Structure to design on (307 residues):
């Protein structure tokens, strides 16, 4: 059986449709549909239920995909392993990250990486959903939580810190002197546990305070939340990597520079995740090295909280 047909089948599953798979491969959707139909005839059963609105795996298709996905991954690993012995990093590298982290941190490093490794094609998937690495054929993910499914390698990329920030115009109208003042304000919040109803503060002496928060505006995306803070709509709890330039330019102010702040734990970080396998392709290793150099190695130490 032609492995290209199986790879196309896996692509349709990962992309959740013929059209998206065709777009990724720069092919005609009708050609993809015909190739899948030919595979179904060869197998003797239907892989997908088709309708005018969407395609979905049949029970047999789901079972078949579950068995061939690891085989295709092993074949790709074998190919990459052999290729790396005689070539530079090359091939398509599929990377996943949250929308905000991808735009703020990963996109700026891509020109340098592509200049160094022009034969590596980047497929950057920005999504705030925790995509399954195997199902979506993700080679490498960067996430803001160390939680990962089995058979996944997790490594810390960089430490992060959260800040309560607000626009200077807002602070001129609503002076803040202590974390407890936030309890009476309409803050800008994420609709997640902790972020939306309580923020934790720790001063330089280690004393912790939990402040109840009332969300005047609730926004799902970090980029939009930062924009709302710049528009003087209220204080927001945001990661330092997202608002660093706003602080430098004076568009936002760190309201409590002498405190550590969090909604969950004070030990926050960005993490690299990739599927556990016997061999890590050269293209993936090259990108991990670039991440560590361009992002992980450029993080300044916050001396106020260094013991």
């Amino acid at each position: 059986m032609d492995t290209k047909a199986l790879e196309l089948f896996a692509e349709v599953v990962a992309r959740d449709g013929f059209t998206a798979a065709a777009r990724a491969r720069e092919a005609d959707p009708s050609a993809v549909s015909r190739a899948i139909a030919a595979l179904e005839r060869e197998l003797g059963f239907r892989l997908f239920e088709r309708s005018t609105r969407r395609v979905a795996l049949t029970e047999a298709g789901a079972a078949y995909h579950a068995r061939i996905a690891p085989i295709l991954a092993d074949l790709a690993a074998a190919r990459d392993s052999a290729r790396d012995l005689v070539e530079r990093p090359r091939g398509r590298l599929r990377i996943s990250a949250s929308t905000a982290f991808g735009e703020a941190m990963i996109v700026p490093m891509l020109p340098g990486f592509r200049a160094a490794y022009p034969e590596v094609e980047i497929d950057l998937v920005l999504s705030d959903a925790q995509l399954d690495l195997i199902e979506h054929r993700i080679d490498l993910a960067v996430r803001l939580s160390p939680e990962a499914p089995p058979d996944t390698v997790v490594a810390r990329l960089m430490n992060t810190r959260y800040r309560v920030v607000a626009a200077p115009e807002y602070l001129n109208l609503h002076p803040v002197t202590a974390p407890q003042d936030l309890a009476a304000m309409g803050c800008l919040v994420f609709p997640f546990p902790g972020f939306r109803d309580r923020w934790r503060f720790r001063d330089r002496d280690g004393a912790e305070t939990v402040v109840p928060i009332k969300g005047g505006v609730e926004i799902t995306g970090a980029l939009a939340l930062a924009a709302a803070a710049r528009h003087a709509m209220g204080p927001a709890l945001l990661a330092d990597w997202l608002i660093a330039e706003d602080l430098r330019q004076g568009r936002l102010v760190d309201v409590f520079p002498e405190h550590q702040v969090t909604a969950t734990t004070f030990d926050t970080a960005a993490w690299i995740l990739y599927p556990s396998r016997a061999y890590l392709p050269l293209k993936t290793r090259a990108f991990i090295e670039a991440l560590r150099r361009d992002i992980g190695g450029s993080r300044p130490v916050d001396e106020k909280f260094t013991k």
Observations:
- The first strand starts at residue 48 and ends at 50.
- Confidence is low (pLDDT under 50) at residues 300-307.
- Residues 77 and 280 are 7 Å apart (CA to CA).
- The chain has ten helices and 15 strands.
